[in-house]
Sequence to fold (506 residues):
Amino acid sequence: MRYVIVPCMAGVLAAPSALGQVVEETEDGRDRVVVAPAATDNCGWSIESSVPFPLTPGWTLNLRRQVGVVRVGDLNGDDRNDLFVGCYTSNSFPPYDDWHDMIFYNTGDPGAPLPATPSWICAEELHTGDGQLGDINGDGALDIVAITGGTAFNPVRMYLGAPGGPATTPAWVATPPQAGWPTGGMLFDIDRDDDLDLFTTNQGVAGVRPEDAWRPMHFFRNVGGMFETSPSWLSAEISIQNTAAPVDYDNDGDLDVAVAKWVNFESGIYRNDGGTLETTMAWGVGTTGTDRGAAAGDVDDDGDTDLALYLGNVGTRIYENTPQGLSPGSTTTPPFFSAQEIALNDVDQDGDLDVLEVHFGDGRAHLYLNDAGVVGPAPDWTFDASEVGNAIALGDLNGDGWDDLVVGYSGNTSVRVFFALPQVVPCVADLSGASDPNDPAYGVPDGALDAADFFYYLDQFVASNVAVADLTTTSDPSDPGYGTPDGIIDAADFFYYLDLFVAGCP
Fold:
């Protein structure tokens, strides 16, 4: 999709063109684009063969909706993952006439796991820009926390899960101290009492003064299996925020809160001190911009939690957790800077977390593969939709053990699911089907790891066959040269192969 940016303030809309242009607005009302077709619309491409996603979706929702959130989880207790779709309303043109939230229950058919029409429709029609799934009351069923807001200032609400699916009316509705527009939420145990609490980001609507659009962040404590009605914690800062992620940035065992913020406000981290969240930022990125998107995980595979933040006009930057603090590392460089949501997930099952983005301004979803802790700047996989992109989620929908990619849009096709293509992970230690050099299977991998493989490697090692036996420069797994051939066959190669043999095949 080609894009034309139209400056926008939440709640204020210039009249759309008399030429009948399609105008789309983000779920927080902060961006607007005039949609125009492009040659790459509804096309996918990849520059890396190990990408597990196809170039075309395997399932689409062909209902005209503005999808603000997609989430994957077992919502009816049948041990199969379902799809939750939250919808929002805005000043887009032409107007949308339906924004009920929906659930698509898994059919159990691996070839067609999602039905064409929703299995569950929310009784209320509210602006849902984000949402989370979690067992709030500890009954074993997933509940839905819908981050509802919009210019109507709908407060956050929760739909309790049950066998067969959640209720269509909320069991809990927040009563914040000030009317506002919740923009994002996350569930995690902030006070270390073994239940899920709720943290929300918020904004207002532009008015006479800039601060009319500023709101504090809220924390709702879980008390006895239900959130407190009014938040027991408010940030000291009032600002415009949109996304949060839990991250133990100081490695003290407490989950701190990372927040992405909008123009003129610095994204950063609020420290959790023994279950008590500080009201002012302990760490910041050092800049202010159009940031939108936060995620956390061990990206560099060193045993601690790193932070991913989407920084406007920069890309998704990985802040590596080091003994000296968070340090900027890999940064993606998408062709257009308009991410709505980012995610970290080991999509190719190689043991490290990859980066995913979905963009509003050009309708593209991107995957950046992680190679030994380094995320490349260019996307390894892209799908360019004719609609604007809003939401992203991953989860195994067809039961093959691989996470599928779900992307939510605003437009006639409002959800696309890309079913993962399971990759065959090569077993480096599997070298031979026979230990007899006269056997045709000698030197031919057979998918099994046994003594034949070990003796075949030993033969190649003794024969100084560099093509097979040269495996590493060092036998120390902590050395950067571990697993990198150096053109020399020595003891390091032998012990490296021995490590592989003992570890077995994936």
Summary: The chain has a mean pLDDT of 93.
